[in-house]
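Quick log. Single chain, no ligands specified.
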Amino acid sequence: MSVPTPGAPGVPSGPGALRPRLPSPLRPAGDERFARHGVRLLLKRDDLIHPELPGNKWRKLAPNLRAAAEHGHTTLLTFGGAYSHHLRATAAAGRLLGLATIGVVRGDELADRPLNPSLERCAADGMRLVFLDRAGYRRKTAPEFVADLRERFGPFHLVPEGGSNALAVHGCTALGRELRGRADVVAVPCGTGGTLAGLAAGLAPGQRALGFAALKGGFLDREVERLQHDAFGGRRGDWRVEHRFHGGGYAKVPPQLRAFAEDFSARHGVILESLYVAKMLYGLLSLTEEGAFPRGTTLAAVLTGAG
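-> predicted structure:
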């Protein structure tokens, strides 16, 4: 993956600021709760790709960074909520690569409040935060709204909410290719659907991709379809979205999910991100206990660090 070259104008010099760990490690997770059903669990440690751009954030942002460089853009503009992992990753990428970043944040009431730790980190990394009321935020993809943003801020490379666009989907196909022949079913948490769309396209015939929705609303199936159509012209791979394990919706972490995450971390020595990854693993265990996977199945769970 080519990115702006260190030493170019506005880009820090030194040995590769964005040196990713690819392919990410695939490690067995001996867990008797799966083993008693004849199911083997592997952990795909995408959370180890980069300390500040982990998992799907690297895979989705890297092709957008390349496109920005190819078009001579030195500013990234993107969207997110008050606790968006994507905003934090974009801000970090800007700092590491010497790019200006603008984050359009949902909720104009936040402008009059102290920044939460997530937005505080964005600001510390140099991101300009712009707070927008919810009605205006819903218009974020409208051409006239984007034109207004360009008039206000000047030229920029637009990265959609969650980083999911056709470029990002193509970037995530590498995740599927890294897992070819390694598992029967590959599970991934879903926020905007871009990772699942690319993962499914990259897997080999006979492998299945299973996305676990972290938000309620049931919209992800059509989003993944749309993203695959934008990227490939139509549906690719064998995939589906599981909607039962969102825990009440985005940023909702019920007590049983929190207890599961703490127990899993103690068993396997990994810290589970609770808004996305813990929901996926809780769902995988529940499906295993329901008999959804035949004995002899190998599951690979992608630890994205976020959705």
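The chain is about 40% helix and 15% strand.
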